[in-house]
Amino acid sequence: RPSNFPPGPRGLPLAGYIPFLSKLDPEYPHLGLKKLADQYGPVTGFYLGPSQPFISVCGYEAIKEALYNDDLAGRPNNAARRERTFGQRLGVVHNDGPEWQEQRRFTLRHLKDLGFGKTSSEGLIREEIDDLMDEIRLQSWRNQPVDFKGMFNLSLINILWALIGGQRFKRDDVRLARLLDIVDCFIHSANFTRANIPVPTIFLRLFPSTTRNFLGLRNDLFTPLQDFIRDRIQEHVTDRSDDEQRDFIDVYLQEMTKRQSEGDSSFHENQLIGVIIDLFIAGAETTSGSLGFALLYLLHHPEIQQKIQKELDQVCGDSLPQLAHRSSLLYTEAALMEAQRLANITPLAVAHKALRDTHLQGYFIPKESIVTVNLFTVHHDNEFWKDPEMFRPERHLTPDGRKLIKTDHLLPFSAGKRACLGEPLARNTYFLFMSSLLKAFEFRPIPDRPLPTLKPKNGLTLGYDGFEAIVTPRT
Ligand code: HEM
Protein backbone atom coordinates (compact mmCIF):
# COMPACT_ATOMS: atom_id res chain seq x y z
CA ARG A 1 0.00 0.00 0.00
CA PRO A 2 1.31 3.46 -0.82
CA SER A 3 1.61 5.76 2.16
CA ASN A 4 -1.57 7.61 3.13
CA PHE A 5 -3.69 5.03 1.26
CA PRO A 6 -7.25 5.00 2.72
CA PRO A 7 -7.75 2.64 5.69
CA GLY A 8 -9.34 -0.72 4.98
CA PRO A 9 -9.07 -4.48 5.33
CA ARG A 10 -5.85 -6.20 4.21
CA GLY A 11 -7.03 -9.45 2.65
CA LEU A 12 -4.59 -12.20 1.61
CA PRO A 13 -1.25 -12.08 -0.19
CA LEU A 14 -1.81 -12.17 -3.98
CA ALA A 15 -5.61 -12.51 -3.75
CA GLY A 16 -6.05 -9.29 -1.77
CA TYR A 17 -9.62 -8.82 -0.60
CA ILE A 18 -11.26 -10.85 -3.42
CA PRO A 19 -12.15 -13.91 -1.26
CA PHE A 20 -13.97 -11.70 1.27
CA LEU A 21 -15.96 -9.47 -1.10
CA SER A 22 -19.09 -11.61 -1.20
CA LYS A 23 -18.92 -12.29 2.53
CA LEU A 24 -19.38 -8.62 3.39
CA ASP A 25 -23.01 -8.90 2.33
CA PRO A 26 -23.81 -11.99 0.26
CA GLU A 27 -26.68 -10.26 -1.54
CA TYR A 28 -26.11 -6.54 -1.89
CA PRO A 29 -22.60 -5.12 -2.56
CA HIS A 30 -23.66 -1.58 -1.54
CA LEU A 31 -24.62 -2.86 1.93
CA GLY A 32 -21.35 -4.78 2.20
CA LEU A 33 -19.31 -1.68 1.33
CA LYS A 34 -21.35 0.37 3.82
CA LYS A 35 -20.30 -2.09 6.55
CA LEU A 36 -16.65 -1.34 5.71
CA ALA A 37 -17.37 2.40 5.96
CA ASP A 38 -18.95 1.85 9.41
CA GLN A 39 -15.69 0.21 10.49
CA TYR A 40 -13.00 2.24 8.66
CA GLY A 41 -14.59 5.57 7.73
CA PRO A 42 -16.14 7.13 4.60
CA VAL A 43 -13.16 6.43 2.31
CA THR A 44 -12.08 2.79 2.49
CA GLY A 45 -9.31 1.21 0.44
CA PHE A 46 -8.35 -2.39 -0.30
CA TYR A 47 -6.81 -4.40 -3.13
CA LEU A 48 -8.44 -6.76 -5.61
CA GLY A 49 -5.61 -9.18 -6.31
CA PRO A 50 -2.01 -8.04 -5.88
CA SER A 51 -2.17 -4.70 -7.67
CA GLN A 52 -5.69 -3.35 -8.28
CA PRO A 53 -6.63 -0.69 -5.69
CA PHE A 54 -10.34 -0.41 -4.94
CA ILE A 55 -11.69 2.66 -3.14
CA SER A 56 -15.18 2.62 -1.67
CA VAL A 57 -16.62 6.08 -0.99
CA CYS A 58 -19.60 6.47 1.35
CA GLY A 59 -21.49 9.43 2.85
CA TYR A 60 -22.45 12.80 1.41
CA GLU A 61 -19.25 14.82 1.98
CA ALA A 62 -16.82 12.26 0.57
CA ILE A 63 -19.12 11.38 -2.35
CA LYS A 64 -19.60 15.01 -3.29
CA GLU A 65 -15.84 15.56 -3.29
CA ALA A 66 -15.30 12.41 -5.38
CA LEU A 67 -17.97 13.27 -7.98
CA TYR A 68 -16.59 16.78 -8.52
CA ASN A 69 -12.96 15.66 -8.72
CA ASP A 70 -12.35 15.30 -12.47
CA ASP A 71 -9.33 13.09 -11.78
CA LEU A 72 -11.86 10.47 -10.64
CA ALA A 73 -14.08 10.70 -13.74
CA GLY A 74 -12.54 7.73 -15.57
CA ARG A 75 -14.02 4.26 -16.01
CA PRO A 76 -12.38 0.89 -15.30
CA ASN A 77 -10.96 -0.73 -18.41
CA ASN A 78 -10.69 -4.51 -18.32
CA ALA A 79 -10.87 -7.30 -20.85
CA ALA A 80 -14.22 -8.56 -19.56
CA ARG A 81 -15.83 -5.16 -20.05
CA ARG A 82 -14.34 -4.72 -23.53
CA GLU A 83 -15.87 -8.06 -24.57
CA ARG A 84 -19.24 -6.31 -24.79
CA THR A 85 -17.97 -4.16 -27.64
CA PHE A 86 -15.86 -6.42 -29.86
CA GLY A 87 -12.80 -6.41 -27.57
CA GLN A 88 -12.44 -2.65 -27.93
CA ARG A 89 -13.21 0.20 -25.57
CA LEU A 90 -16.26 1.80 -27.21
CA GLY A 91 -19.47 3.64 -26.36
CA VAL A 92 -20.10 6.09 -23.53
CA VAL A 93 -20.60 4.25 -20.24
CA HIS A 94 -17.32 2.30 -20.07
CA ASN A 95 -15.12 4.71 -21.97
CA ASP A 96 -13.08 7.74 -20.89
CA GLY A 97 -10.62 10.32 -22.23
CA PRO A 98 -11.14 12.36 -25.41
CA GLU A 99 -13.09 9.57 -27.15
CA TRP A 100 -15.64 9.40 -24.32
CA GLN A 101 -15.95 13.19 -24.29
CA GLU A 102 -16.55 13.32 -28.02
CA GLN A 103 -19.11 10.48 -28.03
CA ARG A 104 -20.95 11.73 -24.94
CA ARG A 105 -21.20 15.30 -26.25
CA PHE A 106 -22.35 14.20 -29.68
CA THR A 107 -24.93 11.76 -28.30
CA LEU A 108 -26.38 14.22 -25.82
CA ARG A 109 -26.51 17.11 -28.28
CA HIS A 110 -28.23 15.16 -31.03
CA LEU A 111 -30.63 13.26 -28.80
CA LYS A 112 -31.67 16.67 -27.47
CA ASP A 113 -32.21 17.93 -31.04
CA LEU A 114 -34.43 14.89 -31.59
CA GLY A 115 -36.59 15.85 -28.61
CA PHE A 116 -34.83 14.04 -25.75
CA GLY A 117 -36.14 15.49 -22.49
CA LYS A 118 -38.07 18.26 -24.22
CA THR A 119 -41.80 18.77 -24.51
CA SER A 120 -41.50 17.72 -28.16
CA SER A 121 -40.94 14.13 -26.98
CA GLU A 122 -44.13 14.25 -24.88
CA GLY A 123 -46.21 12.84 -27.77
CA LEU A 124 -43.82 9.93 -28.09
CA ILE A 125 -44.03 9.12 -24.38
CA ARG A 126 -47.81 9.60 -24.43
CA GLU A 127 -48.16 7.03 -27.22
CA GLU A 128 -46.41 4.45 -25.02
CA ILE A 129 -48.53 5.38 -21.99
CA ASP A 130 -51.73 4.90 -24.02
CA ASP A 131 -50.49 1.51 -25.18
CA LEU A 132 -49.59 0.49 -21.61
CA MET A 133 -52.99 1.59 -20.35
CA ASP A 134 -54.70 -0.56 -22.98
CA GLU A 135 -52.65 -3.52 -21.79
CA ILE A 136 -53.61 -2.82 -18.16
CA ARG A 137 -57.31 -2.53 -19.12
CA LEU A 138 -57.08 -5.82 -20.97
CA GLN A 139 -55.40 -7.64 -18.10
CA SER A 140 -57.66 -6.17 -15.42
CA TRP A 141 -60.90 -7.15 -17.18
CA ARG A 142 -63.37 -8.55 -14.65
CA ASN A 143 -61.13 -7.56 -11.76
CA GLN A 144 -58.34 -9.99 -12.69
CA PRO A 145 -54.99 -9.11 -11.06
CA VAL A 146 -52.56 -7.33 -13.36
CA ASP A 147 -49.04 -8.77 -13.60
CA PHE A 148 -46.42 -5.98 -13.52
CA LYS A 149 -43.42 -8.22 -14.17
CA GLY A 150 -41.52 -6.63 -17.04
CA MET A 151 -44.55 -4.43 -17.74
CA PHE A 152 -42.67 -1.16 -18.29
CA ASN A 153 -39.50 -2.30 -20.11
CA LEU A 154 -41.26 -2.60 -23.42
CA SER A 155 -42.63 0.95 -23.28
CA LEU A 156 -39.21 2.31 -22.34
CA ILE A 157 -37.30 0.46 -25.05
CA ASN A 158 -39.91 1.78 -27.51
CA ILE A 159 -39.30 5.39 -26.44
CA LEU A 160 -35.53 4.92 -26.78
CA TRP A 161 -35.80 3.07 -30.05
CA ALA A 162 -38.11 5.71 -31.56
CA LEU A 163 -35.39 8.32 -30.91
CA ILE A 164 -32.51 6.06 -31.94
CA GLY A 165 -33.91 3.94 -34.75
CA GLY A 166 -37.18 5.68 -35.66
CA GLN A 167 -39.44 2.68 -35.01
CA ARG A 168 -41.63 1.21 -32.32
CA PHE A 169 -42.29 -2.44 -31.54
CA LYS A 170 -45.63 -4.09 -30.89
CA ARG A 171 -46.11 -5.70 -27.46
CA ASP A 172 -46.13 -9.19 -28.96
CA ASP A 173 -43.06 -8.71 -31.18
CA VAL A 174 -40.80 -11.72 -30.53
CA ARG A 175 -37.61 -9.82 -31.49
CA LEU A 176 -38.40 -7.31 -28.79
CA ALA A 177 -39.10 -9.98 -26.17
CA ARG A 178 -35.64 -11.41 -26.91
CA LEU A 179 -33.91 -8.03 -26.59
CA LEU A 180 -35.67 -7.36 -23.31
CA ASP A 181 -34.61 -10.76 -21.98
CA ILE A 182 -30.99 -9.99 -22.87
CA VAL A 183 -30.98 -6.66 -21.07
CA ASP A 184 -32.71 -8.11 -18.00
CA CYS A 185 -30.48 -11.19 -17.85
CA PHE A 186 -27.28 -9.15 -18.29
CA ILE A 187 -28.17 -6.64 -15.58
CA HIS A 188 -29.46 -9.07 -13.01
CA SER A 189 -26.83 -11.78 -13.42
CA ALA A 190 -24.09 -9.22 -12.77
CA ASN A 191 -22.28 -8.51 -9.53
CA PHE A 192 -21.16 -4.91 -9.12
CA THR A 193 -17.97 -5.46 -7.14
CA ARG A 194 -16.82 -8.77 -8.65
CA ALA A 195 -17.13 -7.26 -12.15
CA ASN A 196 -14.07 -5.17 -11.28
CA ILE A 197 -11.72 -8.06 -10.54
CA PRO A 198 -8.87 -7.79 -13.07
CA VAL A 199 -8.95 -11.09 -14.95
CA PRO A 200 -6.26 -11.48 -17.64
CA THR A 201 -7.52 -11.78 -21.23
CA ILE A 202 -5.96 -15.26 -21.52
CA PHE A 203 -8.38 -16.59 -18.84
CA LEU A 204 -11.31 -15.14 -20.73
CA ARG A 205 -10.10 -16.88 -23.90
CA LEU A 206 -9.38 -20.25 -22.24
CA PHE A 207 -12.32 -20.44 -19.83
CA PRO A 208 -14.90 -17.98 -21.17
CA SER A 209 -18.02 -19.18 -19.39
CA THR A 210 -16.33 -19.85 -16.01
CA THR A 211 -14.74 -16.40 -16.07
CA ARG A 212 -17.96 -14.67 -17.11
CA ASN A 213 -19.96 -16.44 -14.42
CA PHE A 214 -17.34 -15.65 -11.78
CA LEU A 215 -17.32 -11.95 -12.70
CA GLY A 216 -21.06 -11.86 -13.32
CA LEU A 217 -20.49 -10.21 -16.69
CA ARG A 218 -22.47 -12.16 -19.28
CA ASN A 219 -21.18 -10.28 -22.30
CA ASP A 220 -21.83 -13.30 -24.51
CA LEU A 221 -25.51 -12.33 -24.28
CA PHE A 222 -24.88 -9.29 -26.41
CA THR A 223 -24.32 -11.01 -29.76
CA PRO A 224 -28.02 -11.02 -30.79
CA LEU A 225 -28.38 -7.40 -29.65
CA GLN A 226 -25.30 -6.40 -31.67
CA ASP A 227 -26.67 -8.25 -34.72
CA PHE A 228 -30.07 -6.60 -34.35
CA ILE A 229 -28.53 -3.12 -34.15
CA ARG A 230 -26.13 -3.80 -37.04
CA ASP A 231 -29.05 -4.89 -39.27
CA ARG A 232 -30.98 -1.71 -38.44
CA ILE A 233 -27.88 0.39 -39.21
CA GLN A 234 -27.55 -1.33 -42.60
CA GLU A 235 -31.21 -0.56 -43.34
CA HIS A 236 -30.53 3.08 -42.52
CA VAL A 237 -27.42 3.11 -44.75
CA THR A 238 -29.53 2.04 -47.73
CA ASP A 239 -32.57 4.24 -47.24
CA ARG A 240 -31.27 7.41 -45.59
CA SER A 241 -30.96 10.76 -47.33
CA ASP A 242 -28.66 13.65 -46.41
CA ASP A 243 -31.62 16.05 -46.53
CA GLU A 244 -33.66 14.39 -43.80
CA GLN A 245 -32.44 13.16 -40.42
CA ARG A 246 -35.13 10.92 -39.03
CA ASP A 247 -33.38 9.60 -35.95
CA PHE A 248 -30.08 9.23 -34.08
CA ILE A 249 -28.74 6.54 -36.45
CA ASP A 250 -29.22 8.89 -39.44
CA VAL A 251 -27.44 11.72 -37.64
CA TYR A 252 -24.58 9.45 -36.57
CA LEU A 253 -24.14 7.97 -40.08
CA GLN A 254 -23.92 11.45 -41.52
CA GLU A 255 -21.23 12.39 -38.99
CA MET A 256 -19.39 9.15 -39.76
CA THR A 257 -19.23 9.97 -43.47
CA LYS A 258 -18.09 13.52 -42.77
CA ARG A 259 -15.40 12.50 -40.26
CA GLN A 260 -14.08 9.56 -42.24
CA SER A 261 -13.27 11.82 -45.15
CA GLU A 262 -11.21 13.87 -42.66
CA GLY A 263 -9.07 10.82 -41.72
CA ASP A 264 -8.75 9.26 -38.22
CA SER A 265 -12.10 9.33 -36.44
CA SER A 266 -13.79 7.84 -33.38
CA PHE A 267 -17.05 7.70 -35.37
CA HIS A 268 -17.47 4.24 -36.90
CA GLU A 269 -20.10 1.51 -37.05
CA ASN A 270 -18.88 -0.49 -34.04
CA GLN A 271 -18.73 2.71 -31.99
CA LEU A 272 -22.35 3.45 -32.93
CA ILE A 273 -23.34 -0.07 -31.85
CA GLY A 274 -21.51 0.51 -28.53
CA VAL A 275 -23.33 3.80 -27.94
CA ILE A 276 -26.75 2.26 -28.69
CA ILE A 277 -26.11 -0.74 -26.42
CA ASP A 278 -25.16 1.72 -23.66
CA LEU A 279 -28.37 3.70 -24.10
CA PHE A 280 -30.43 0.49 -23.93
CA ILE A 281 -28.64 -0.91 -20.89
CA ALA A 282 -28.44 2.38 -18.99
CA GLY A 283 -31.90 3.61 -19.93
CA ALA A 284 -34.46 0.82 -19.87
CA GLU A 285 -34.02 -1.08 -16.59
CA THR A 286 -33.33 2.06 -14.56
CA THR A 287 -36.51 3.86 -15.60
CA SER A 288 -38.56 0.67 -15.47
CA GLY A 289 -37.24 -0.07 -11.93
CA SER A 290 -38.15 3.46 -10.82
CA LEU A 291 -41.72 3.04 -12.09
CA GLY A 292 -42.12 -0.42 -10.56
CA PHE A 293 -40.87 0.67 -7.14
CA ALA A 294 -42.99 3.83 -7.14
CA LEU A 295 -46.09 1.70 -7.71
CA LEU A 296 -45.00 -0.78 -5.05
CA TYR A 297 -44.57 1.98 -2.46
CA LEU A 298 -48.03 3.29 -3.29
CA LEU A 299 -49.54 -0.18 -2.87
CA HIS A 300 -47.97 -0.17 0.59
CA HIS A 301 -49.21 3.38 1.29
CA PRO A 302 -52.78 3.74 -0.05
CA GLU A 303 -53.27 7.03 1.82
CA ILE A 304 -50.40 8.59 -0.16
CA GLN A 305 -51.83 7.21 -3.40
CA GLN A 306 -55.16 8.92 -2.60
CA LYS A 307 -53.47 12.19 -1.78
CA ILE A 308 -51.67 12.17 -5.13
CA GLN A 309 -54.92 11.37 -6.93
CA LYS A 310 -56.70 14.21 -5.19
CA GLU A 311 -54.01 16.63 -6.35
CA LEU A 312 -54.10 15.21 -9.89
CA ASP A 313 -57.89 15.71 -10.04
CA GLN A 314 -57.64 19.26 -8.74
CA VAL A 315 -54.89 20.32 -11.13
CA CYS A 316 -55.67 18.33 -14.29
CA GLY A 317 -59.48 18.13 -14.16
CA ASP A 318 -60.70 15.49 -16.60
CA SER A 319 -57.55 15.29 -18.70
CA LEU A 320 -54.43 13.20 -18.23
CA PRO A 321 -51.44 15.02 -16.71
CA GLN A 322 -49.02 16.77 -19.06
CA LEU A 323 -45.53 18.17 -18.54
CA ALA A 324 -47.12 21.62 -18.35
CA HIS A 325 -48.98 20.55 -15.18
CA ARG A 326 -45.80 19.48 -13.46
CA SER A 327 -44.95 22.69 -11.65
CA SER A 328 -48.43 22.62 -10.02
CA LEU A 329 -48.26 18.96 -8.96
CA LEU A 330 -45.97 19.43 -5.98
CA TYR A 331 -47.19 16.58 -3.80
CA THR A 332 -47.06 14.15 -6.73
CA GLU A 333 -43.53 15.28 -7.52
CA ALA A 334 -42.50 14.92 -3.86
CA ALA A 335 -43.88 11.37 -3.73
CA LEU A 336 -41.96 10.46 -6.90
CA MET A 337 -38.75 11.91 -5.44
CA GLU A 338 -39.31 9.94 -2.25
CA ALA A 339 -39.80 6.70 -4.19
CA GLN A 340 -36.52 7.32 -6.04
CA ARG A 341 -34.71 8.01 -2.78
CA LEU A 342 -35.88 4.77 -1.20
CA ALA A 343 -35.65 2.57 -4.29
CA ASN A 344 -31.96 3.33 -4.93
CA ILE A 345 -32.05 1.91 -8.42
CA THR A 346 -28.33 2.59 -8.92
CA PRO A 347 -26.95 2.30 -5.36
CA LEU A 348 -23.30 2.32 -6.50
CA ALA A 349 -23.80 4.41 -9.70
CA VAL A 350 -21.32 3.07 -12.30
CA ALA A 351 -17.75 2.34 -11.15
CA HIS A 352 -15.37 5.29 -11.64
CA LYS A 353 -11.58 5.15 -12.08
CA ALA A 354 -8.74 7.48 -11.04
CA LEU A 355 -7.26 8.91 -14.24
CA ARG A 356 -4.15 10.10 -12.37
CA ASP A 357 -2.78 10.13 -8.80
CA THR A 358 -5.08 12.30 -6.70
CA HIS A 359 -6.43 12.90 -3.19
CA LEU A 360 -9.81 12.34 -1.58
CA GLN A 361 -10.70 13.51 1.94
CA GLY A 362 -6.95 13.90 2.50
CA TYR A 363 -6.09 10.31 1.44
CA PHE A 364 -3.84 9.38 -1.47
CA ILE A 365 -5.70 7.69 -4.35
CA PRO A 366 -3.30 6.05 -6.84
CA LYS A 367 -3.85 6.31 -10.60
CA GLU A 368 -5.99 3.39 -11.97
CA SER A 369 -7.83 2.88 -8.66
CA ILE A 370 -11.42 1.74 -9.09
CA VAL A 371 -13.67 4.11 -7.17
CA THR A 372 -17.29 3.43 -6.20
CA VAL A 373 -19.64 6.09 -4.89
CA ASN A 374 -22.25 4.58 -2.58
CA LEU A 375 -25.31 6.72 -3.37
CA PHE A 376 -27.37 4.50 -1.07
CA THR A 377 -25.51 5.95 1.93
CA VAL A 378 -26.50 9.49 0.87
CA HIS A 379 -30.15 8.52 0.46
CA HIS A 380 -30.15 6.77 3.83
CA ASP A 381 -28.14 9.38 5.73
CA ASN A 382 -29.64 9.25 9.24
CA GLU A 383 -28.51 12.72 10.21
CA PHE A 384 -29.92 14.43 7.15
CA TRP A 385 -33.16 12.50 6.58
CA LYS A 386 -33.82 11.66 10.29
CA ASP A 387 -36.08 8.68 9.50
CA PRO A 388 -34.57 7.44 6.20
CA GLU A 389 -36.45 4.12 6.18
CA MET A 390 -39.87 5.82 6.10
CA PHE A 391 -41.75 6.63 2.89
CA ARG A 392 -42.64 10.24 3.61
CA PRO A 393 -43.16 12.56 0.57
CA GLU A 394 -43.66 15.58 2.86
CA ARG A 395 -39.92 15.65 3.59
CA HIS A 396 -39.42 17.08 0.07
CA LEU A 397 -41.87 19.96 0.66
CA THR A 398 -41.71 23.14 2.71
CA PRO A 399 -43.97 22.99 5.82
CA ASP A 400 -46.76 24.93 4.03
CA GLY A 401 -46.56 22.44 1.12
CA ARG A 402 -46.12 25.26 -1.41
CA LYS A 403 -42.57 24.58 -2.56
CA LEU A 404 -40.38 21.59 -3.35
CA ILE A 405 -37.16 21.31 -1.38
CA LYS A 406 -34.34 20.56 -3.82
CA THR A 407 -31.33 19.03 -2.12
CA ASP A 408 -28.14 17.39 -3.35
CA HIS A 409 -28.72 14.71 -0.72
CA LEU A 410 -30.96 13.24 -3.40
CA LEU A 411 -28.69 11.98 -6.17
CA PRO A 412 -30.46 9.25 -8.14
CA PHE A 413 -28.71 10.39 -11.33
CA SER A 414 -25.33 11.00 -9.61
CA ALA A 415 -23.51 14.29 -10.32
CA GLY A 416 -20.40 15.81 -11.87
CA LYS A 417 -18.85 15.01 -15.26
CA ARG A 418 -20.17 11.45 -15.24
CA ALA A 419 -23.75 12.27 -14.21
CA CYS A 420 -26.47 10.34 -16.02
CA LEU A 421 -26.70 11.32 -19.68
CA GLY A 422 -30.37 10.32 -19.84
CA GLU A 423 -31.61 12.36 -16.87
CA PRO A 424 -33.89 14.77 -18.81
CA LEU A 425 -35.65 11.93 -20.64
CA ALA A 426 -35.81 9.75 -17.52
CA ARG A 427 -37.38 12.53 -15.44
CA ASN A 428 -40.07 13.29 -18.01
CA THR A 429 -40.84 9.64 -18.60
CA TYR A 430 -41.04 8.82 -14.89
CA PHE A 431 -43.33 11.78 -14.21
CA LEU A 432 -45.66 11.27 -17.18
CA PHE A 433 -46.06 7.51 -16.69
CA MET A 434 -46.67 7.65 -12.94
CA SER A 435 -48.97 10.65 -12.96
CA SER A 436 -51.02 9.31 -15.90
CA LEU A 437 -51.39 5.83 -14.40
CA LEU A 438 -52.46 7.25 -11.04
CA LYS A 439 -54.93 9.63 -12.66
CA ALA A 440 -56.52 6.84 -14.68
CA PHE A 441 -56.42 3.91 -12.25
CA GLU A 442 -56.54 2.93 -8.62
CA PHE A 443 -53.97 0.34 -7.61
CA ARG A 444 -54.74 -2.03 -4.75
CA PRO A 445 -53.01 -5.11 -3.28
CA ILE A 446 -54.70 -8.45 -3.87
CA PRO A 447 -57.04 -9.15 -0.91
CA ASP A 448 -55.99 -11.91 1.50
CA ARG A 449 -52.46 -12.05 0.15
CA PRO A 450 -49.35 -10.56 1.78
CA LEU A 451 -48.32 -7.20 0.37
CA PRO A 452 -45.81 -7.60 -2.49
CA THR A 453 -42.20 -7.44 -1.39
CA LEU A 454 -40.15 -4.24 -1.47
CA LYS A 455 -36.95 -6.27 -1.41
CA PRO A 456 -35.00 -5.45 -4.57
CA LYS A 457 -33.71 -7.87 -7.16
CA ASN A 458 -29.93 -7.56 -7.21
CA GLY A 459 -27.65 -6.82 -10.14
CA LEU A 460 -25.92 -3.84 -11.76
CA THR A 461 -29.10 -1.94 -10.92
CA LEU A 462 -31.68 -2.84 -8.28
CA GLY A 463 -34.89 -4.05 -9.90
CA TYR A 464 -38.37 -4.74 -8.57
CA ASP A 465 -39.51 -8.31 -8.40
CA GLY A 466 -42.59 -9.00 -10.47
CA PHE A 467 -45.77 -8.26 -8.52
CA GLU A 468 -49.51 -8.37 -9.09
CA ALA A 469 -52.15 -5.82 -8.16
CA ILE A 470 -55.85 -5.15 -8.60
CA VAL A 471 -56.29 -2.20 -10.92
CA THR A 472 -59.60 -0.42 -11.30
CA PRO A 473 -60.38 2.52 -13.59
CA ARG A 474 -61.07 5.79 -11.74
CA THR A 475 -64.19 7.60 -12.71
C1 HEM B 1 -34.60 6.75 -13.55
C2 HEM B 1 -33.76 6.40 -14.50
C3 HEM B 1 -32.27 6.53 -14.45
C4 HEM B 1 -31.42 6.54 -13.37
C5 HEM B 1 -31.79 6.41 -11.89
C6 HEM B 1 -30.07 6.67 -13.88
C7 HEM B 1 -28.94 6.75 -13.10
C8 HEM B 1 -27.64 6.82 -13.60
C9 HEM B 1 -26.45 6.83 -12.79
C10 HEM B 1 -26.42 6.83 -11.27
C11 HEM B 1 -25.39 6.86 -13.63
C12 HEM B 1 -23.90 6.78 -13.24
C13 HEM B 1 -23.31 8.13 -12.92
C14 HEM B 1 -21.91 7.99 -12.38
O1 HEM B 1 -21.16 7.12 -12.81
O2 HEM B 1 -21.54 8.75 -11.46
C15 HEM B 1 -25.90 6.88 -14.98
C16 HEM B 1 -25.11 6.94 -16.10
C17 HEM B 1 -25.61 6.94 -17.38
N1 HEM B 1 -26.93 6.94 -17.76
FE1 HEM B 1 -28.53 6.95 -16.52
N2 HEM B 1 -30.14 6.71 -15.25
C18 HEM B 1 -31.45 6.64 -15.64
C19 HEM B 1 -31.94 6.70 -16.93
C20 HEM B 1 -31.18 6.81 -18.07
C21 HEM B 1 -31.68 6.89 -19.41
C22 HEM B 1 -33.17 6.94 -19.79
C23 HEM B 1 -30.60 6.92 -20.25
C24 HEM B 1 -30.51 6.99 -21.75
C25 HEM B 1 -31.40 7.28 -22.55
C26 HEM B 1 -29.41 6.87 -19.43
C27 HEM B 1 -28.12 6.90 -19.91
C28 HEM B 1 -26.99 6.92 -19.13
C29 HEM B 1 -25.63 6.90 -19.67
C30 HEM B 1 -25.25 6.85 -21.15
C31 HEM B 1 -24.77 6.94 -18.57
C32 HEM B 1 -23.24 6.94 -18.60
C33 HEM B 1 -22.76 8.37 -18.59
C34 HEM B 1 -21.24 8.46 -18.68
O3 HEM B 1 -20.56 7.53 -18.28
O4 HEM B 1 -20.74 9.49 -19.17
N3 HEM B 1 -29.80 6.80 -18.10
N4 HEM B 1 -27.27 6.87 -14.93
Automatic annotation (TrEMBL):
Gene3D superfamilies, sorted: Cytochrome P450
Protein's name according to its UniProt entry: Cytochrome P450
Record carries keyword Ribosomal protein: no
InterPro entries: Cyt_P450, Cyt_P450_CS, Cyt_P450_E_grp-I, Cyt_P450_sf, Cytochrome_P450_fam2
Keywords: Heme, Iron, Metal-binding, Monooxygenase, Oxidoreductase, Signal
Domain of life: Eukaryota
PROSITE patterns: CYTOCHROME_P450
Cofactor: heme
Entry binding sites for heme: C420
One Pfam family of this chain: p450
The organism's taxonomic lineage, starting at the top: Eukaryota, Metazoa, Ecdysozoa, Arthropoda, Crustacea
